[in-house]
Design a protein that fits this description.
Two copies of one chain form a homodimer. Helix content of chain A is 51%, strand content 9%. By secondary structure, chain A is α/β, with parallel strands linked by helices. Chain A has two domains: 63 residues, Nicotinate-nucleotide-dimethylbenzimidazole phosphoribosyltransferase (CobT), small domain (5,6-Dimethylbenzimidazole Phosphoribosyltransferase, Chain: A, domain 1), CATH 1.10.1610.10; 269 residues, 3-Layer(aba) Sandwich (Rossmann fold), CATH 3.40.50.10210. The radius of gyration of chain A is 20 Å and the shape is globular. The interface between A and B is large, with 57 and 56 residues.
């Protein structure tokens, strides 16, 4: 816990003075004040988060954390667990959705095995940080031990520290793990007190009967493990997963390192929710990429206090939404850096 | 009218079979079916519109049409008319919002003087297609003659024809004209039968009294000119403007040339609305870039039947929203062209 607590202790509020300075600079550009809406918000927040007047977004990285889930045994997903490892290889070959969209956004995808039930020994291009070969089925007991959960959390923190050292300007989260909408719904139910039915949806596209089964499975998991909603790390260990813990760690690490972090969809937001429950200023560093089709997503976003950037009916995960949102955040920063002022352009105002 | 009617007669429905073929191809990519939401819609529509299985978006062009408005005499805008010509020079120098965002999207900005009250003779880089030195004040009579309106409409059509000849893959609309939310509100009121108050908003940011004045001015313009809501070109001439007519022509021309066209915000949508009232299949070629802050925008979009791609609180115009939306449409096309299939990636499905 010490390195986790050390990271939490490093988190500071963002620089409010820089926020105002950046907005004043935007107001002097050749446009009516505020007329670029959220692009202006993105620009001023990037300045305030990074502490840099002209943020450099030339290095952008999306982390796609992969892990397996024992709860798949309960029939909560349309796909078998082997798809997790197959998709990891697809990410490494550059053929998945997140690869296409990250290339489009000028971002690098880093794929992290934090808990896949497969031996990737010798596989090149993969970041090998496995903390367990998948979770245990949470209807029978805790998904992870506290040690496994903390190890996964530290993976995310260390990757954020490394981004800071490398001069990365914008970090994105993503994940792959067959069955992982199930722990995500369990987390928001445990933390918010919403009923399981209110926060549970179709994942990759399950039918009505499978949805009822998924709700029952999550209810059972919560009854068996009784996670303490006021202890986010207890919830994370008992009904979460290694990729969700790594995302929570990445978000914490970004906040501690003054790095803006774009969270992807439902599962990523579950990780970000854990992080933001651990320290109130974490939310200042978060950009919510999009509004997922998953019905529990809105509750998470409200609790974090984040307004999603896009609403395109996405429900793929991997970091696909984060990649798209990065293009819009970067557009905002370019407005700040590249637009002419009234004086430069000789425009009356 | 002949060349306009000739263009309208060329408009065909999009290829429904190609729409299905493109979706079938998307469904074979390594993701749950439909999980990339509207990106998939963008991809299949691009295929169906262009008639090309792998649409080439390497050439993207945004047209920013500029014109002045006599109704500015009535105090409807926060800015004086001279800002229109100043901004034209800013566009040509590359310093305006649309320049920054078009560069970000990999699109070219083409600036068209279709009715600015200023002599740009000899100014390089500008497309000189002036049909009048601004409109007349519509509270005193028609904004344009029918001939001026048709001339502006033909400018847009010819530019669309030229895009087709050049192999442009995606066209965007934009505009600059101090006072031009006023004719745009007048157009939607005349066509939809909504009250002026329901469709009139703050433009560049006018206060409460100025808003009441703007509503009164539009009401007066409609009473004086009595445009026929069932004759879109009558509405366009009497209470529109040259840049709105050129946008209507561009949208018609794109539809006639099987070119997808991204319409920007409130004023561009007024032009697209005129075009879509002239032929029911025009809407199949339209992508609505974003939901503007202007309250009349939603009524226009509903009437066209277009769902906006972005909702970022934008109200600048110029083509800024179109540039941002282009990045998302291109992302969808890249999904179609670049993602691996289940077979290629060896992923179980």
């Amino acid at each position: 816990m010490n390195s986790v607590q050390f990271t939490i202790n490093r988190i500071q509020p963002v620089n409010a003075e820089l926020l105002q300075q950046a907005q004043a600079r935007l107001d002097n550009k050749t446009k009516p004040p505020g007329s670029l809406g959220r692009l202006e918000e993105f620009a001023r927040r990037l300045v305030a988060i990074s502490g840099i007047c002209d943020p450099d977004l030339s290095k952008k990285v999306i982390f796609t954390f992969a892990a397996d889930h024992g709860v798949v045994q309960e029939g909560v997903s349309l796909y078998p667990s082997e798809v997790t490892r197959q998709m990891v290889l697809n990410f490494l070959a550059g053929g998945a959705g997140v690869n296409v969209l990250a290339r489009h956004a000028g971002a690098e995808v880093r794929v992290v095995d934090v808990g896949v039930d497969y031996d990737f020994e010798g596989v090149a291009g993969l970041i090998h940080r496995k903390v367990a070969r998948g979770t245990r089925n949470f209807v029978k007991g805790p998904a992870m031990t506290r040690e496994e959960m903390l190890a996964a959390l530290r993976v995310g923190i260390e990757l954020a520290d490394q981004c800071r050292a490398e001069g990365v300007g914008l970090v994105g989260t993503g994940e792959m793990g067959i069955g992982n909408t199930t722990p995500s719904s369990a987390i928001i139910a445990a933390i918010s007190g919403k009923t399981v039915a209110e926060v549970t949806h179709r994942g990759t596209g399950i039918g009505d009967d499978a949805l009822l089964n998924k709700i029952r499975v999550i209810q059972q998991g919560l009854e068996v493990n009784r996670p303490d909603g006021n202890d986010p790390l207890d919830v994370l260990a008992k009904v979460g997963g290694p990729e969700i813990a790594a995302i929570a760690g990445l978000v914490l690490g970004c906040a501690a390192n003054s790095l803006p972090v774009v969270i992807d969809g439902f599962i990523s937001t579950a990780g970000a929710l854990i992080a933001s429950e651990l320290h109130p200023h974490v939310r200042d560093y978060i950009f919510a990429a999009h509004r997922s089709v998953e019905i529990g997503h809105q509750y998470m976003l409200e609790r974090i206090g984040a307004e999603p950037i896009l609403d395109l009916g996405l429900r793929l995960g991997e970091g696909t939404g984060a990649a798209l949102a990065m293009t819009l955040i970067e557009a905002g920063v370019k407005i700040l850096k590249e637009m002419a002022t009234f004086e430069q352009a000789g425009v009356t105002h």
